[in-house]
Amino acid sequence: MDRINKTETLYEILNSKTFTINVYQREYRWGRKQIEQLINDITDCFLMYYDNSKFKHEDTDEVAQYGYYFMGSIIRTGDDSTKEIVDGQQRLTSLTLLLMFINKMLHDQGNHELDSMLPNMILSSPFGVKKTFNINVPERKACMDHLYKGETNFQPTDESSQTLLDRYLDIIDLFRDEITPQALPYFAC
User: Fold this and answer.
1) Fewer CB in a 10 Å sphere around the end CB: N or C, the chain?
2) How far is residue 76 from each of residues 4, 6, 160, measured CA to CA in Å?
3) Do 117 and 9 contact (CB within 8 A), yes or no?
4) pTM given for the model
5) Residue 67: is it exposed, middle or buried by C-beta count within 10 angstroms (0-12/13-18/19+)?
6) Residue 75, beta-bridge partner list
7) What are the angstrom distances between the C-alpha of 54 and each of 46, 48, 59, 95, 127?
8) DSSP secondary structure string for all residues of 82-109
9) In whole angstroms, what is the distance from residue 117 CA to residue 115 CA?
10) In angstroms, how far is CA 38 from the centroid of its own chain?
């Protein structure tokens, strides 16, 4: 069992990793209030540093100098390629939904700068060619497939999938206007 180092970035935590969730873990249960707090916290932290007037569109390296948002502890067990989440499932799942939304927005804007970074934080190939979601729960796969494509007009088949859809719709509704299309690539980094 190990605790993710508090200095690891979300990219380092999720890049090409797969996490499973044991049956003793509770279902995904975050509500709108928690998603709103997450979006506000991350956005506020980003906006403390972002200055649209001093960046060129292709200069996302500046983001490395920004301050950090502490996500809370994440405890995992297992080997390097596949780990089981012991604590932090709610946060990682919610962050994955946010990454899916941002990835879809960038794609829809025709911005392909981060085409390899974001998908590698959402999906991985731990055992070869077949891609799995970073939070690999078989019952959620169909829902995650739809949400990854930005499809929200499907019928969830279980409680967690319904909650995933509801929180994705909350992200669409709550995503802050201050993150303009010009700011989005920096926010995504």
Assistant:
1) N
2) 7, 13, 21
3) no
4) 0.87
5) exposed
6) 3, 87
7) 15, 14, 10, 28, 43
8) EEEEEE-HHHHHHHHHHHHHHHHHHHHT
9) 6
10) 11
